[in-house]
Amino acid sequence: MKKILFPTDFSDVSKNAFIYALKLADSIDAEIITMHVYQLPQVNYINVSEYLHEIYDVTELSNFENYKDEVPILRNIAEENNLDKVKISHVLILGNLVDEIQKITKHENIDFVIMGTKGATSLKETFLGTVATKVMNDVKAIVLAIPEHCKYQPIKNLLFITEYKPEDIESFIRVKTLAKVFQAHIDCLRVQSPHHENKNNDMKDWNELIKSHNIALHSISGDDVEGIILNFIDLYKINMIAMHVYHKNFFEKLFRISLSKKLAFHVNVPILAIHE
Predict the structure, then answer these.
(1) Which part of the chain is the UspA domain (predicted)?
(2) I need a labelling partner for 24 at 20 to 30 A (CA). Which of 43, 96, 158, 269 fits?
């Protein structure tokens, strides 16, 4: 049975993302492991050592009580969506969020990590948010980030952002498998500089890959990579974006968009990050 890890902070953003976790689990016959990671407070008072144990006990108990109260809410979400048959287990962990996600992903052989993410509030931020971006960059699993204003809709049009390189093919095959589950159409998109001389001869391989499948290959020339991608999402009614993670900071660079574009476009589709 496949496994989906769902880190949660009990927020509305997180509960909204839980619907995607449930729908995917139902589609691929997977179980969900929800996890909440908390940290103990930093105590800097002098002569407080005799109280530390008591403070930590209270903190841990408080986190446990919060989690215990949230579990039925998640179960209710499953019931409301007629997905209460999905197997769900719950983990409460003391530690650092990204570190613990990495550990449990490795230990439990997690197939997907699904998490909600808040939007940017200033130009210096990416829309993904620092935690989700770090998870996408560092965790060796397929990571699905659900923006806060993204309301669930069936995945019918999937966008795979690519440079049509050989190293993209394995990720593309995974996307193709997922698209088959959803019975979705795939658009592959390469955005390249108009000054770039295209010496890429790999399109032949990609044309072989898409034979007899519901897939279209696109190449668009332009300097405004983000704007072109956002236009494409809007024009082709994309329900999910997928991309291969080449290197760290890839997502920060890709989605550092101007205020005018933020006003013109609302990025409200899930993003799937795939490592090699």
Answers:
(1) 1-146
(2) 96
Using alpha carbons only, give the angle 167, 169, 171 rounded to the nearest 5 degrees.
95
CA pair distance 179, 200, nearest whole angstrom? 26
Burial class (CB in 10 A: 0-12, 13-18, 19+), 259: exposed
- CA angle, corner 39, sides to 38 and 42, nearest 5? 155
The whole-angstrom separation of Cα 110 and Cα 187 is 27
The whole-model pTM stands at 0.82
- Both tokens of 72, joined, read 């039925």
Specify whether the CB–CB gap between 272 and 241 falls below 8 A.
Answer: yes
